[in-house]
What does this fold into?
Amino acid sequence: MLRQKLTKDLKKTLTVVLAVGAVSVVPSTGLSLDAYGNGDKTGVVALYTFKEGSGSVVHDQITTGGALDLNISGTSGSYSWSSMGLDIDSPLQVFVQSAAPATKVINACNASNAMTIETWVVPQSPNQAFLESDGPVRIAALTDGVLNQGGIYLGEGYNAGAFFDLGIHTMWASKNGVYMEQGEQFTTDPSDTSIVRGNEQEHIIVTRDSNGDVQMYVSNSTGAPVLEIPFGGAPVPNDKNGNLKLASDDYLTVGNDINPGSTQYPTVTIAGGGPQPISDKQFLGELQMVAVYCTALTKNQVLGALAPTNWLTSSTNYTVNPNAPITQAQQMAALIYERVAGVKLPIDHPTILQMANILAANPTDIPTRMQAAAIAASSPAFYNITVSDFAKPMSNIANLTQVPLNDFVADIIGATRDGMDARQMLDGDYYYVGDPTKTAVPDDPIASIALSNNHYAALESEGYDLSSVLLQKTGQLFYNGQGALVPANKVGDAGGLLTTRQFASEAYSAGTNRRAIRFAFNSFLCEDITQWADATAPDGYVGRDVDRFPTGDHNVYLTTCKACHAQMDAMRPAFAHFTFDSNKGGADYLQDALLVSQETSFSTSNGFSAPAPAAGETNQDALNDQANDETNPSFMVQSPLGVSAKYNKNTYVFPAGYPVPNNSWVNYTNRPGTVDRAYFGWAQTNVQGDSSIAGQGVGAFAAMIASSQAYPRCLAQRVFQSVCKRAPDPNSSADQALLTQVVNAFTTTDQYKLQTLFERIAVQPDCLGQ
Amino acid sequence: MKWSRRKFRIALSLIAVSSVAAFLGNACSGGFQGASSGANSLASGGAVMACQEPTFQTVPGTIAVSIEYGNNVLANMQSCLGLSNTDLSQQTLDENAARLPSFSQAGYVGDLNSAMMMGIAAVAIDACSDLANKEAAEAAANRNYFTQVDFTQSAMTTAAIDDSVNRLARECWQRTPTSEELQIIESGTQAMGSIGAQYQAINVCASVLASLAGVSNPAGVM
It folds into this structure.
């Protein structure tokens, strides 16, 4: 026991030392304070540093308006002092509260209608609220327990995962003018286990501005502040106009709250409120600093150098000259800028004038125009708008542009910015993340990147300049379901964009992974299965789940089903290791059968009903059929071992069909004389005796696509549509000749650089309407 | 204050939309279809929008016209007005978020409809309010768009309206306005009465931004 206690204390001490050390390397963060309360105290109305070391009073370091000291009530041994703060070790034993209502805080914050609570704490456990019955434990609160007419708290809670939360009671006017109380709760993401860590120093800042908007910041394991995405508490329309109205009898409490009316718990005496039972909301851990501001710190003030930059209008320094004639060169420059960067720039802007100067010399010369276009392409807007909107439709099956940023899109933006060979987007082993020295978004590699899209969505929603914050990392990582990330190439399964989480969520979820083939061909070869289906292709790889006698007629299969299945089924084993099921809580990740353990417990608690084999099926076959229902996120149904069970389900439909044994695949679209062979232009490697192309795994499949002739042509088509604002006309000889010309340049002199492809296409007469 | 602003916003929207409707002029009653307008990008100075069949046929020598879409609606306004992120109010961001579902996904001209135009007008009013707030705090000589506006007055002078329209059209339509366009905005603004020069300035700005010429790509062709 003693050893455990010593170990715990040592760990805490070490953590604090390390974390405090880390504080000094955090970039300047404006008004935020360190764990000792040092820093710019502008706007702070009450400050507690918990460095008293002994006694039963926590002193308010802000004496303006009168010090609001806190008195500690607690049984002997229920709390102790350390060099860093006040340790609370026992539930239902300790109550720390101001001796009088927090009038100076109430008056100032009600007047400003804004508030910030900043704390440094060491929570004892990430799950402590799970064990306590009254909901989130209180770190700091303006408690509204007596009059119950408005208050605020910062707490730690649990709902299928730990979170920090901000609870607010606002008083807002309904339509008939009656003031009503509205409770709101904003939490950090409960599924992100990196936020509430336990036994580690955490720096938490929550702000509520006069518009009712809430921001939450929690330091990550290196001590840097992270702008968390507030969950829940989305303000309803009436809330937005509501006011922060702290009740006149609110007391400032830390570490606990009161629970009026309860007879279950010990009581404390509230001045003016008599004896009141305390809550089972005892925060367990160490309180190191609590500061209350009556202003809402801005992102720039909290994040300092990590705040988003103003990339859209990096230069607002221009002068409108209403009397100057607008030259044709200016108009062309403005048009090229708009097409390349995706936004209008003022025609008198220095960038437009710079481009116009170049164009004026030789406005019809393509290389001259490309020089001007290169200026537009160097703007952040090119990456954040044009390249992003070029990549987004490729990243989802519905072909939508208005979707959140994701890893697929980030990889394309980063590759474009870094001048990478576009083939590497498929056959390279890398990925992009927000540079942690330039951003403050959720960045836990498991919770925010492998298990969710939170990292990328926040990069975009917070307005970070993707042209500067994206950082290339070598070696894609897969989550193994057991708390660890493993290099994809350890099992030979890195496949560039085909193994991004976004592609997986679209292509490998449920189903049979045939969708992945169709999606890949659509996105990277611009050819839908309806175009490359071929009923003459060999059907030896068609799965057992495909009926050979639909409606009782084999000819229906031969003339319709086979055309698609013969081609797709032969290639789909490329993805045999993968599945992704967003329906499983906590399993929203790319599952690789070589990394995630085989499911062996086919119990109802894991989502399985009693297997009921169809005629001709084994029990394993019946379990395979239920693979998509399996609910245990740590495991994966495989059959055979190493192959996702979805490949071998519904075997009763045609038991003589092809059982997928591994990830070896065959491409039949290379057969001589076929339209497909001419269109795709596969590089002639790994060609078999029957002219098919054989390969193993997703990497080889991705490399096959990247080396085809259709891939650069597809990219050119998509770029054309992006900057020329129309699809190239397949019946227009001019458009087709243009595509051929730019693809030739792209694959030779331009060395597959996407940015140059944008510049080259945007300045063509057919694109500019000349 | 919030109530009166809301009321004002409704009035502004109607005026802005009436200006937009005037710009539509000879538009097809069934709405715009197709992606090619047939307008020559660099020579076009008028608010002309040819009626096209709903096809994507290519007409040699013409330029495909698209419209602003999604988040680019606000981004375009911000960029052409020279507003930084910190110049934007929370209200503008909230309005844009609320209107996003009515905006085009990918910018095809055929996506244009009345709900989208109403949404653009609403966002334009807020963005223009941010511009007016920014410029009202600056000396007249340092402003880009409201150089002749006395924000303490109850109305803008005709000269101030014309000057502001000229400046806004130059930067956001990337051409000078026609006399007809100038007249429409001028009369629409004066019809608001003496409600404050700042509100009139917002109307002038929103009329330019929420017009078809303001939302088209290339700018000013519609």
